[in-house]
Specification:
It is a single chain. By secondary structure, the chain is α/β, with parallel strands linked by helices. The chain is built from six helices and seven strands. A seven-stranded mixed sheet has the order 3-2-1-4-5-7-6. Mean pLDDT is 87; it is low at 1-8 and 210-214.
């Protein structure tokens, strides 16, 4: 029997679990339930550490209602926001209109890349509070392939296990896990997104290329 209470707290382990999890997230967005929007402080940190440039190309993985996606577009970045929830994409597309932004459905639990996304073509990959819902190893390998060699930057926002309040349910990462994610990149930067350190930001630049990727 599938434990429905854990579907929003773990990576689906079967097609049936994935289907139920998708239903959960569609209802989540349709009911206008609250998620964590980016604060002005978080966006200032993104500008400082990721350094988005006018005309760069980015993707936002698990974009939800598209708030962060639209913020990048206002910085001059050409960005596509992806989510596996049709409800989220409908809301995002209906809320944010710009020549620099578009939204599309994609299931990042699949082994396929989004349609039209080519290797070594992306300047910035954003994965904000979404990594815990993905196959981490597979996704990080995919992101490395999508990014431009040497200059491409993966921006992650993660909840930190050691700083979560008692009883908080999340797909958080321990400090040790976060530090392990930083390995294999030419340059890395880590910072606290909030005063309590409950969320951390990573800018991982210059992915290490395996021989098969070069």
């Amino acid at each position: 029997m599938i434990n429905k209470n854990r579907l929003q707290q773990s990576v689906p382990q079967s097609a049936a679990e994935a289907e139920l999890a998708l239903r959960y997230w569609n209802r989540f967005y349709e009911r206008q339930q609250q998620s964590k929007p980016p604060s002005r402080h978080e966006l200032d940190q993104f500008r400082k550490y990721v350094d988005p440039r006018l005309g760069q190309t980015a993707i936002d993985v698990g974009c939800g209602r598209g708030r962060f996606t639209a913020s990048m577009a206002r910085m001059g970045v050409n960005v596509t926001g992806y989510d596996w929830s049709a409800a989220a994409i409908k809301i995002a597309a209906g809320t944010h209109s710009s020549r620099r932004v578009r939204f599309a459905e994609h299931d990042f639990l699949s082994e396929t890349s989004p349609e039209g996304l080519e290797s070594a073509s992306i300047d910035i990959v954003v994965c904000r509070l979404t990594l815990g819902y993905l196959d981490q190893k597979a996704f990080l390998a995919q992101a490395s392939r999508w990014l431009r060699p040497g200059t491409g930057t993966l921006h992650l926002v993660l909840e930190v296990s050691e700083h979560q309040p008692m009883g908080h349910k999340s797909l958080s990462h321990s400090d040790a896990e976060i530090e392990s994610i930083r390995k294999g990149w030419a340059q890395t930067q880590r910072w606290d997104i909030d005063a309590g350190g409950t969320m951390t930001g990573l800018a991982l630049r210059g992915p290490r290329r395996l021989p098969a990727q070069q």
